[in-house]
Every structure is written in structure tokens, then in C-alpha cells.
Amino acid sequence: MKNTRNLILVAMFAALTAIGAFIKVPIPYVPFTLQYLFCALAGLILGSKFGALSQIVYVAIGLSGVPVFTEGGGISYIFKPTFGYLIGFIVAAYVIGKVRENVLKLTFIKTIFTLIFGLFFIYLFGVVYLYISYNLYLGKDISFYFAFFYGFVVCITGDLVLTVFAAYISIKLLPVLRKNGYIK
């Protein structure tokens, strides 16, 4: 029963992340979406292993050709400048889940710092991949500052708002899930 529940939750968070890709605000180079919100909640609720697995499933479905990413899907998506953010989702869900598993009492402030720590990895992989993609694959000579500005500075405000929202939701939700035996 527990394995079935875990598989359902992994699939649900993969689907939620896909839905989050289509709830977006178009801004230059990197659109603002709700993917990070569901990635963060996956790490917090499912833990490191299953949170990361939900994001791996999401990325695998997209790379297999199902158009679940912000600009479609398919194996050629690895050449998109924003693919690094998808890699970052996997790492972030794992990191967020690992921190949550190791913190005895998760307060609102601790949750915010946990989510920001995970968000760091999304931007680390995203900005570096954006820079490398433009310079090596697309042949457009951009500075690291350009990639940092459009890949981080322009986007971070929205993700910080989502961080506070995810922290608030999880502080209310995690005790209920623990009480009912859904998480440890």
C-alpha cells in the first residue's frame, strides 16, 4: 500500500510540475512559471528520494516527446537555453527533501531557508546552462552578466514570492500529513 501511495504521489507531483509549466508569465529568455512551486512542494512533502523522482519523471516525460515543458518537449529540448532549470528542479527537490528529512522541527523561517537553499541549485544549473547554451550551442556571444541578469535577477522576485507561499502551505500541510501517517 505504501509503495502504491508513493508512486501515486510521485506521478501527481510530476503532473503538477507539468501543469505549472503552462501557468506562466512571459518575460525575456526565462519565463516565470509555477514549476518551482510544485518542485519545492515535492521536496517538502515527498522527501529527497521521491521528490527528486517526481522531477525526474517530469523531465523524462518531456524528453520523451510529451509537450510538458514551457516550450514543448522532445529530446531536442536539451539544447534549449532553459533546460538547465529542469536539471535544477531535480537537484532542488532532492536538496529540499533532504533538509526537511534532517530538520526535527520545521518552522516557517526554517522552511523558507530550506526552499531558498533548493532554489539556489535551480538558479545555479539554470544560469550556467543558459550561459553555456548561448555561447557554445547557439553561437551567440553573451556575457555571464547577461545570463545572470536575465536568468536570475529578472526571475528571482517571483520565485521568492513562491518560496513564501510554499513555506506557508507546507507548514500547514506537513503536520496533517505526519499525523495521518503519510510522511515521517
UniProtKB/TrEMBL annotation:
Subcellular location: Cell membrane
Top-level taxonomic group: Bacteria
Any Pfam family matching the protein: BioY
Claim: Thylakoid is one of the keywords in the record: no
Predominant place of localization: membrane
Keywords: Cell membrane, Membrane, Transmembrane, Transmembrane helix, Transport
Keyword Transmembrane helix among UniProt keywords: yes
Organism: Clostridium frigoris
Listed InterPro entries: BioY
Family: Belongs to the BioY family.
Membrane topology: Multi-pass membrane protein
Parts of the chain that traverse the membrane: 7-23, 75-96, 108-132, 144-169
Protein name: Biotin transporter
